[in-house]
Amino acid sequence: MIKSHYKPNKPTKLSLLIVLFIAIAAALNSAQVWAHNHFTVKSFGNSQADNANIILIPGLMSNGEVWQSTLDAIKDEHRVHVISISGFADSQKPTNFSMYELQNELIDFITEKNRKSEASNAVANKTILIGHSLGGFLAMSIALEKPELVSKVVSVDGLPYIGPIFTGTNQTTPASLSHQAERILLMHKSMTQAQLAKQTASGIFIQATQPRHQKHIIDMAERSDPVTVGKAMHYLMSNDLRPSLAKIKADLLILGASGGFNDNSRKQGVEQLYKEQVVNLPNAVVKMNTTSRHFIMYDDPKWLNDQVTAFIKDKS
């Protein structure tokens, strides 16, 4: 028998370090999942970056997947936490949904992430909140409730008070819509998911332009819990942030959409409606996309992501 004197090379310290570096990099950029009663969260991006944590909050009957293009645009320089609210679009139904409790759970999550960021970077980091529609309302509400936690807020087609969207005037108050809010709550208690999808389909023209995006929005509605949706709508119609909005310390960017209207006078009316809601907030900016509909992330993702990245990088 011929004995071989060949011996495989032992791994060098350098090669081991390279393997270890690759493994660490993969771990840092992979998604981690946490579950709470009112939401689940997937975390992505660079956890070693000194930049602020960013939290993406979807809107009514949507899940975190709607933020994919924005996530891709910001995750290389930030640790990004993508929220999916329980009861919306396949997310597990909460035991007893409450917008108030949802906000408190989000505050607890933000507090913990800020604490960990400060411990690892030895600097005080505040979180940036980006929300769509209902998610934008939540982001502004959290910035009001806990100003020490939040540095910037981006609200994508979400307002401090939703009521004027239905009436066309900022004179609308929760008191004037109380009966409608109660009817919506009652109606959704007896509604099926198929009926919820049909209701969404009836107004889909205002949500997105492309048929494939419209279908996806309707599909998310059909996978949502009607009771949870009704409670969320009732809360939005019953709570108005405008009277206390001037107390927000965070910089606020509202990105509105008026592409669902054909004539310029209607588009200008919507822009005026949005700007009036933040007229007493000097650190607020309203920018309108006149071609996109409600889901700007579907109709014009480049415009949306350009606005978001410029805003979060602005140090002024």
UniProtKB/TrEMBL annotation:
Gene3D superfamilies documented for this protein: alpha/beta hydrolase (3.40.50.1820)
This protein's UniProt keywords: Hydrolase, Signal
UniProt cross-references to Pfam families, sorted A to Z: Abhydrolase_1
UniProt signal peptide: 1-35
Keyword set includes Signal: yes
Domain AB hydrolase-1 residues, every copy: 54-180
Taxonomy, superkingdom: Bacteria
GO molecular function: hydrolase activity
Protein name: AB hydrolase-1 domain-containing protein
Organism: Pseudoalteromonas phenolica
Phylogenetic classification of the source organism: Bacteria, Pseudomonadati, Pseudomonadota, Gammaproteobacteria, Alteromonadales
